[in-house]
Design goal:
The chain folds into 2 domains: 254 residues, Orthogonal Bundle (Fic-like fold); 96 residues, Arc Repressor Mutant, subunit A. Helices cover 57% and strands 6% of the residues. The chain contains 16 helices and 5 strands. It is globular, with a radius of gyration of 23 Å. The two termini are 42 Å apart. The model has no long low-confidence stretch (mean pLDDT 89).
Amino acid sequence: MRGTLVTRTWQYDPTLYAPPRYRKACRYEAFVPDPLAGGQFNLPSRVFGIVSDAEQAIMGLNAIARPALEPLARLLLRTESVASSKVEGLQVGIRQLVRAESRIETGGSASPMVREVIGNIDAMKLAVEQAATAASIDLTHLTAIHARLMAKSPTGQVAGRLRKGQNWIGGNDYNPCGADFVPPPPDHVERLLFDLCVAMAEESLPPLVQAAMVHAQFETIHPFDDGNGRTGRALIHVVLRRRGLAASYVPPLSVVLASDRERYIEGLTHFRDGNVESWIERFAIAAARAARLAQAHLGAVTALMERWRRLLAAGDAPRADAAAWVVIGVLPAHPVITAPVAAAATGRAKAAIHLAIQQLEHCGVLVPVSTSKRNRSWEATGLVELLEGLEAGRLPGD
């Protein structure tokens, strides 16, 4: 066991609106994990081989990074965020999401669940763009990621705040007695998070092993009242980016984890039980699958962009410096696009953008989402279908 069980008493609460048996005092055991910083883990060569293969796959994914492909990085980041939300039961399809994003960009509305998933995208961006590049990681980075994540959640009042009470997983809704897992009591949380930040700055472990250990430790601490899983998965990418393994593209690990949620949870349980080898092996296999899946889809999206260029060339064939060519380059980052977003993403003038959209619609690259004359948006042909396959964990063409 990688920690200690501490026995606590849940106090009798006569005012609790619950069946009488849940209002009674009861005893429970909370798990306080061992510190992570400075730890050494003797993994067998077989597991190190699996880790090495996974790191090579992530390096291969990032080897194709070029400034012109930056929209593809945003595409992968969005996919990872959506899948991470899916692990927590927030079921929002990629087509529903990208259309809702387009409505929001033009002042429209979206459902609370969609806004919550968008909050996860914002938190993931904050994690990989700011926390990953900071000189050092501290508690303010963790709470900032959580605050961004929960800002649009129905439980937004807990955003960025460490929990003050005991939480638990499984069992009943009224007390932790009989729960499947009880994280450390609240008076241990801040100390454990400081240790976690130190562990995130170390470089004694292979990057993927470090990311796996940091994630599992964070999930064990469960420092917030809500949003722990999504915050913890964002930290995976903070570690991979800080260590230089995923400098440009995040492997959509949550796509793989969401496909077998029970196995993922079982792996975290193995970590707490002291079977670190099993957890690292499962994590590395998932990372390798995610990297190869992402690389295949990046290739498919790049091929799709070439098809769009051929359609444009065969149609109106605008000049080489026309805005339509530039708009094609940003479509992977904006599968459903509006004229204002296209102008902001390309830096082209409003009149040039309207002409570009007209040309791209005429040749079949863009399809109108609605017939409204105001706040119009267009969907990039074939792109959402590819994203749906990536989100489902399918290889292109399957």
